[in-house]
Amino acid sequence: MGKYLRGWRAYLLFLPGVIGVLLFESAIPGKESQLRISPVFNILLVFNLALVVSVNAYFVVAFEKATVPKRRYLTLNALLPVAFLVLYFLFVVYSSFAKYQVQHVQQVEPVRTIHLGFMNYLILGMLLYAAVNFLYLNKELVMGRIRRIEDQAQQLQLSNKFLLPMKRITRAALLTALGLFVLVVFIDLKMLFF
Questions:
Q1: I need a surface site. Which of 20, 151, 158, 160 has the fewest CB within 10 A?
Q2: What pLDDT, in 10s, does the model give residues 93-129?
Q3: What pTM was estimated for this model as a whole?
Q4: Which residues of 158-194 are buried (b: 16+ CB within 10 A; e: fewer)?
């Protein structure tokens, strides 16, 4: 699978999220069209998160199977965010369609205080854990295991087969997020001034 993630193909993993952001930004702010697109945006974004973290976990699990000293914490650490994101995706799909009602746009009010419950903190904590795991922890654990191998040829082979695709996905994620941020700022400034 790593050979398919070279160049522009790594960026294709982020296509659902990019489509969701573009759909959301194309809606007229404050109108019912934005309320109708919000569930689609949420579904595409969470699906994209689950997809990218799953691909990263695939490389970690494949690396674990390819190396001799089996340490299950590496596999468990990689699969825990995948399980959470799949369940979270199912929750978002359910809540998007079960509670979907177009509300009338209200007048602008002062900001209200929001009290988060235990589940909201749990979801936030697991999303942060998935982000740290994807951006940093999985690569560091795989890199540390590769460095412990004494055979240089095997180190190079494992690095090219598992670590390099993980780095490509991370780089693509960061560049896509930066590009979307700049695009959204540009669109919002355009709507504000024109």
A1: 151
A2: 998 877 555 455 555 566 667 777 898 899 999 999 9
A3: 0.85
A4: bbebbbebbebbbebbeebeeebeeeeeeeeeeeeee
